[in-house]
Design brief:
The structure is a homotetramer of 311-residue chains. Chain A is α+β, with helices and mostly antiparallel strands and 311 residues long. Chain A has 3 domains: 174 residues, Gyrase A, domain 2, CATH 3.30.1360.170; 61 residues; 46 residues, no CATH class. Helix content of chain A is 47%, strand content 14%. Chain A is built from 13 helices and 8 strands. In chain A, strand 1 and strand 2 form a beta hairpin. In chain A, helix 8 crosses helix 9. The two termini of chain A are 27 Å apart. Chains in contact: A-B, A-C, A-D, B-C, B-D, C-D. The interface between C and D is large, with 59 and 58 residues. Strand 8 of chain C pairs antiparallel with strand 8 of chain D, so a sheet runs across the interface.
Chain lengths: 311, 311, 311, 311
């Protein structure tokens, strides 16, 4: 029994693995607070007389839209995660989390290595220096995967011989292991910083192997803090930022009869990569599916006197 | 003499007061790095073969546009600042800076209090719960200012009597002083976090009294790291973020013949405050002055083979 | 119902005010984790085969003693606190917490001001530039307290007239209020950083008015994470650090027949303030009350062969 | 030319490699501030009338001794470092630095791997679960080193074939590389957090391979901020912390005639590991070499009126 805020949908997920990659997982193991704590924290700031919005969903959306991010720091979540070392190395760059990772100075290595799914074994992208292009065809993919597993077996055999036959110090023997080895950690973070992490790591430019972990954590957030998550989707994930020059290009489209985004961008002074980016944003905007939008009926400040007295 | 990166325009400002409010100031006292250090840090990440952009200005703009913010953390600046306590209390909420503030446990209080300029003595805003409306007229403003100075004199007289006549411990006597008293501190921050601070505190919704300090610091950044500042203006300060629903409304304007933003917003499901915000963004976009835009000729990746070999 | 770790003694305190000063309080409103989560986090690092200590209490003590502080970051606690502004200004210097404070841009000020208890109305210390000396005698104390309350009434009357009669913007009117005014906030922090805060703010050199808030929070920690708290008391609060020179002075006492700490310190090269500090440490050590020590029966690693094979 | 604080001894080291391990290095590339900035920051806090100590060295020592750590945050330093990945993974756990690491999503891997010096190829420690015991003898060491280099060549050959023959995306191909591969980064940190890092990583319990990098950075700090460094050595590196129970044991030695530390510890309730630790501290204390101590003539507050007027 607890007097603390409890979220039923989150409780159902506690202790259950969300699988990620071939041997990885994210297990939600604890959480603190709920959407309601975002609201309570904001009301501490605004005071009873000063809060700008009356209903909880509207307030949460207002906060996120206007970058009042501190109330989202009032929720905390803790995951047990297992991931390849090269993923852990990207992940740890987010410095606002608390982490306890297994240490190969003390512990035996896990006997798991990452081997990509054939569908994701892709060549280097030609136009994107950090990304992947087309997947390899069957035979080439098979050779690549064999090279992965062969290397992993050889490296692990080397480790075992160093540790077991020579008794080499663990902290030194582990140097022969590849970054495809799985590691695991307890990772704890507040909701604001988690959403910041997810904004970057759910992005199409993030490496596929970390994106699947971001998606696993997003599943939990959606269940745990659904109003915050919805706002995050609308104002961050599916939003677009237009630069000063792009706003100018948009003006040319709205008022000067430019129909082609590329021409408008060119007239607004955009060139090369930025011109392409503007065209993508417009294309994404034009293809936006109105059916996919959630119903909006929020933020009707002061219009329903009946709710006024019930903060 | 130093081997460190030196920025002449920044050197000229070192040690010179930038005034803010009646008795406040910002004095740049030290800096580390320049635009070039942003570039060098990014090139450490990308490696010589991997950098996506060839010229420095283009690279800096690329980084800021795509939220690769860590290279901007490589520059550091230190200011000596004097501001009213109520401004210091907003300012200190930015936790990523290093601060040494004068302490009234040890030091005598400064003999300066903030008295607003008559032009800024305004009533509470009716439609914005956190802001100011119209300025007060002459006589009312005069009474208000008298009330400020009277209170300050009385509070300070009380402090002096407590400290001098009764010998009361400073840490206790200072409790009678008002938050309009000036304090001062040394404040050091990296460029990324400073730009984040400025993005929030240069905003029209920030309180006027902290905005003038933000503007003072912005003056220094403009001189010290002009390419970063330009990118920050284009992609943050003068940019607009459109939510998922706003992108839908924009689509209705671009493709479905809606001319009135309010109608488009309504059709896209936006209501009340969000509807108004969309209309403001469109209005701001339509009034954007193309003459004010800096010339853009960047990012011409791969087009000038002559520069390719000179990273 | 929750699957999360629940600590009964902590539950009993949730939602209950711990009073501090005349109108202040600390209310524990949420927590995450328990002593057991420190242990689990550490075992994640050490792995099943690698953990250095077998029982939980011994492991927690080992971690704290050897500055393995990250497992203590895995617990989180949230308080609602009300304190005078001058206390809030010291408190907020700890940057590792999450905070939402009431804002006088939006909210009406609380109608509470700090008036010290007569027993704590003391003169400035002569030998300690930041502290208090003797309390004032009856009449002087009475005058001082009257000056506090008079000033508070006048400042608040001024605020009310500015806000109500002139309609001055709240964010401006509040500038006339003194730093003895109470404010309140939600404050959330992890256990490691809370203990760091408490180590500094429970210290005899901390201002009395913040120490009472530190003591209020310490009460909660003692109930919530008793093993961590005990270790913190033994290895931080009631521990002493000896410098290189002090270790030399101690050697002279232990081996060279010096009985007087001052002579040993002098012979070891300590002077003035450092000499006094050494003498205080020795005096504190000599007066340490062995009866006050908790029974110690921990850390018996390797003594019971029966447990050796069962890590 | 610069108006900024310049430290000649630091300038001499800028741009010069300090070697670490077989292919690693630390290159100081920029710094901000000097010992004098610690003093200036502290004086901002204390105010001209309130500073507790008159000479700079004494003030710096006072600050460090009493954990007034914020003035040490006012200095900043930037290093370019090259280290094996497994060292980078320990290093990055210190979250208070700014980092830009080369990314194998974009860049070609360096062609350097760590191969330990034969003298450091040691077996797992028996009594210390995280450390090393005796070095291996000649032939065994030679086999071990061959296994290191063989694995490295094979893994790199695998990488090259994946990247060059199959054109596999770099971000995927790098998964076959071992954690003995060198990486490099720009790393920037303030002096307080650097000293905290060094306190942990110069410790005898830190892994040898990161300790050499800590020592390289310590070399720079010693030249750059000699007074801060000296204080850090005296009050942190060569200091000892005694727990509540250890203070009791010490009392038994000083006043009750206990000569043997183990007996005193036992009588004070210390057992097993803690008993051993107490004995080590006493032994270290007794063997402290007074000749090694720097001359102390500081902190003579108020005794030399001639320096009083020159804060």
């Amino acid at each position: 029994m607890t007097k603390r805020t409890t979220v039923e949908a989150a409780e159902l997920m506690l202790g259950h693995e969300i699988k990620a990659l071939d041997h990885g997982f994210v297990i939600p193991i604890d959480y603190m607070g709920s959407d309601n704590d975002v609201v309570q924290a904001a009301r501490t700031s605004f005071g009873p007389s000063g809060r700008p919005i009356h209903d909880d969903r509207g307030l949460i959306r207002y906060l996120l839209r206007h970058r009042h991010t501190t109330p989202f720091e009032m929720l905390e979540v803790k995951f047990l995660c297992r991931m390849p070392i090269f993923v852990a190395r990207q992940w740890i760059r987010h410095r606002t989390a608390n982490v306890n990772e297994m240490s190969l100075r003390y512990a035996e290595p896990l006997e798991f290595f990452y081997v990509p799914d054939p569908a994701t074994v892709s060549v280097q992208s030609k136009d994107n220096k950090q990304g992947r292009g087309e997947p390899l065809t069957g035979e080439a993919a098979a050779i690549v995967l064999d090279m992965f597993t062969d290397g992993q077996h050889e490296d692990m055999a080397r480790y075992r011989r160093l540790a077991d036959e020579f008794g080499l110090a663990k902290e030194l023997a582990r140097a022969v292991l590849p970054v495809s080895l799985y590691t695991q950690w307890v990772w704890k973070i507040d909701l604001h910083n988690l959403m910041h992490f997810l904004g970057l790591r759910l992005d199409a430019h993030a490496q596929y192997e970390i994106r699947v972990f971001a998606e696993a954590m997003a599943q939990f957030v959606r269940a745990w803090a659904p109003l915050s998550w919805e706002a995050f989707e609308d104002y961050r994930l599916h939003a677009a930022s237009l630069s000063r020059q792009e706003l100018h290009a948009l003006r040319l489209m709205l008022r000067r009869g430019y129909v082609d985004p590329a021409s408008a961008a060119l007239a607004a002074g955009l060139r090369a990569r930025e011109l392409d980016e503007f065209c993508s944003k417009v294309a994404k905007c034009l293809s936006s599916d109105p059916e996919g939008l959630p119903p909006l009926s929020l933020d009707i400040e002061g219009e329903s006197p009946g709710t006024r007295g019930t903060p």
